[in-house]
């Protein structure tokens, strides 16, 4: 797996990684562009570049993982270079009329990690390149297990403060907030208080597939259990997500479908 510099695996226990030689970078940029072109050809409405967690673009951006001594390492301007090259190549590949968004990590929540202050400068760089939106997240594989991060991540709306800060930094770019916007009331407040332009729902909508319909009708929703990590554990083992909040019969049917698909 390519990596920005020679360091431990992308996630604890992950496969070994190595630093990318400068000569390899154009090939990787071209691969991002080709993938984005396929997204458009397949009929999707937009493409999102994953700049979060601890994946390749973040490995370049973070001073924690980027130890390069060429023009791709050192000050933020250099660490951001590869990310911006990828964004430009993707935008060129899909054309000016096709939205290109960015999964944007605003703070790694690690003492030596990438921090909000630099993230806001990076957000302005992406805005200057014409990014269609920023989908804001916090934390990374290496911080997830820290007790203070685990505690923070269990709270409602735990990433909204980051999204709000990004929105203030780039008011011209639509910003998506996510992270335990558990009920329509919580999500609605984020929008009403103009902390974000859009809300993203993952576990929220996995726990209750009727969440949107119920929100429209003002009905109570089933909420994700902050102590449960079943879907994350299953997806990390390349298994389809199943939620213990679903009615037993639905869980049974889903397991049966998965079994038959094997
Ligand atoms: C099982 C699972 C898989 C996820 N996969 C991705 C992913 O592939 N890309 C991504 O950007 N975020 C991914 N996320 C993060 C979500 O997009 C979202 O930002 C996060 O879970 C917080 O929102 P939530 O509280 O509504 O789940 C995933 C989350 C879960 C629980
Ligand atoms: S599986 Fe667990 S963590 Fe995932 S959505 Fe359902 S309750 Fe939440």
Q: What does this 3D model show about the protein?
A:
With 262 residues, the chain is of the alpha/beta class. The protein has two domains: 225 residues, Alpha-Beta Barrel (TIM Barrel); 35 residues, no CATH class. Helices cover 45% and strands 10% of the residues. Helix 1 runs parallel beside helix 4. The longest helix is centred in the N-terminal third of the chain and has 17 residues. The chain binds flavin mononucleotide and iron/sulfur cluster (SF4).
Briefly summarize what is shown.
The chain is an alpha/beta fold and 262 residues long. The protein has helices spanning 25-41, 56-61, 76-79, 81-94, 116-128, 141-144, 147-153, 160-169, 184-192, 203-207, 211-217, 230-236, 248-261, and strands at 2-3, 18-19, 47-51, 100-107, 134-138, 175-177, 198-199. It is 45% helix and 10% strand.
């Amino acid at each position: 797996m390519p990596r920005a510099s020679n360091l431990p695996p992308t996630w604890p226990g992950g496969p070994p990684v190595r630093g990318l030689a400068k000569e390899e970078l154009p090939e990787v940029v071209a691969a991002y562009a080709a993938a984005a072109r396929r997204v458009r050809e397949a009929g999707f409405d937009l493409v999102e570049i994953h700049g979060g967690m601890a994946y390749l673009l973040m490995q370049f951006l973070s001073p924690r993982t980027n130890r390069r001594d060429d023009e791709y390492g050192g000050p933020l301007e250099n660490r951001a270079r590869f990310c911006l090259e990828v964004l430009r190549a993707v935008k060129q590949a899909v054309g000016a009329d096709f939205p290109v968004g960015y999964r944007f990590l605003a703070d790694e929540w690690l003492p030596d990690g990438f921090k909000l202050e630099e993230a806001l400068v990076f957000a302005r760089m992406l805005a200057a390149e014409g990014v269609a939106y920023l989908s804001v997240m916090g934390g990374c594989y290496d911080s997830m297990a820290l007790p203070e991060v685990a505690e923070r991540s269990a709270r409602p709306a735990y990433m909204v403060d980051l999204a709000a800060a990004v929105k203030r930094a780039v008011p011209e770019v639509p910003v998506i907030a996510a992270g335990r916007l558990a009920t329509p009331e919580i999500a609605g407040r984020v929008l009403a208080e103009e902390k974000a332009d859009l809300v993203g729902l993952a576990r929220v909508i996995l726990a209750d597939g009727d969440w949107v319909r119920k929100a429209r009708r003002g009905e109570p929703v089933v909420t994700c259990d902050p102590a449960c990590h079943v879907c994350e554990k299953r997806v990390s083992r390349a298994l389809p997500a199943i939620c213990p909040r679903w009615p037993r019969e639905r869980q049974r049917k889903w397991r049966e479908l998965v079994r038959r698909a094997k």
